[in-house]
Amino acid sequence: MGGPLVLYHRIKEHLLTITFRSHIILSILIRICLIIYGQFQDKHAEVPYTDVDYIVVTDGARQMLLGNSPFRRHTYRYSPILAFMQIPNVVVYNEMGKFIYACFDILVALLIYVIVRNELQSQCNKAVKCLLTKYGRGSQFSSKLNYGDSDSRNSPEKVAKASACFWLYNPLTAVISTRGNGDSFSSFFVIFTLYLIIKSDDCSNSVRKRNWLIFAAGLVHGFAIHLRLYPLLFSLAYFLTLSSRLVKSIKDFMRVVLFPNIQQLILILGTLLSLVLVTGLFYRLYGWQYIYEAYLYHFVRKDIRHNFSLYFLMQYLGSGDSGQAMSPGGLQKLLTLLPQILLILYLSIGFGQFRQTLPFAIFAVAYTMVTFNTVVTSQYFIWYLALLPLCINNFHGMSLRQCSMYFGIWLVFQGLWLLPAYLLEFKSWNTFYWIGLQGGVFFVVNNFILGRLIENYSFTPFKINLKKLF
């Protein structure tokens, strides 16, 4: 075991010595190569590289150019903004949309880098300020200085670089964006909301600036909800982070919800303003069809195509009798949503009250939402994989061996599901029960991993060199 560990640490140290700009350039080249390779696979392989959603959105863009609604394209159920972004596919080059999504893939990494570096530096500065004050030298503190030890493996700069590289070199995220999936676009605005809320906490000395940052966070959050409905479930964690009261009981929770402070009201105002304006604009342009396809459809959706969800087989077997499809709908919906809602409430209250734990709260909520959802595809994994780098440095209780084991388990059971899915879709084998079984096992594995992550989550420790301070 010593050999692989030594090799791992050598590779890690070598990667951390490379400038972040070089990592960005290399990641861009990797994504360009994947897009070029994708064209070859689309032409010659049995399994196409390009995401079917990319084709649907491109058709929606074509309808836009003709002056029609993108929703005239059957199965178009996305924001019209995506169709607008893919207009270059029609007028310039069919792969342009993939380059646009790959750009947002890189922007996500930049945001991860900035958030992790600033957050660790902020915590480090607070620790230094407390130490200087303790020794009667508080006047020597300067917020303009970088107190992080740049030679340390755990310095803010190196940790931020490692966190961003976790996203940049993740094969799953790189492949999904270059296949033409727009989830990196929505993930950018989710993380940008997080950045603005955390940034606002650093402006406690300037109330006006803090309120503007919170308002901007609300605007971005509303736009993120417009793009994808799932960021709506992050709202409670954002709301609790801005509270000056600590929630320890149901009574405390109700008090915080019913009597919000000015910052919480500003966040709500920004979110509603953004969401209503964008939704109102597209409602005026495309009417009720936009409301149904982009929003309401996802609440009544019953996808019987094979997917990772625990509930896939139940939905498939229930789809045969259309006469009774509506009778168990209410109870079935309640039973599938209740565990998810309770877990999201628990995670939002447990980790969403503090700025330091907010990134993990959002990650855990996204992870739970995807795991318990009635429809789960590979693209949904981006929803939480984009947030995981923001908190990977906080799993101090997990060794390298444990991390590798959990990630390996996650990949193996994902692969075990993909085998019967391939046999069904491309070989026409009847593997529905096999897929249902693998979906159930994958559900258990995901819950096991989330439990281990929660169990091993902790704050980031800092090693302060007193000689450098004095």
From TrEMBL:
GO terms for biological process: GPI anchor biosynthetic process. Its main location: endoplasmic reticulum. The keyword Zinc-finger does not apply. Keywords: Endoplasmic reticulum, Glycosyltransferase, GPI-anchor biosynthesis, Membrane, Transferase, Transmembrane, Transmembrane helix. It is a multi-pass membrane protein. It is an enzyme of class 2 (transferase). Its EC number is 2.4.1.-. Pathway: Glycolipid biosynthesis; glycosylphosphatidylinositol-anchor biosynthesis. GO terms for molecular function: alpha-1,4-mannosyltransferase activity; GPI mannosyltransferase activity. Belongs to the PIGM family. This is GPI alpha-1,4-mannosyltransferase I, catalytic subunit. The gene is 101890169.
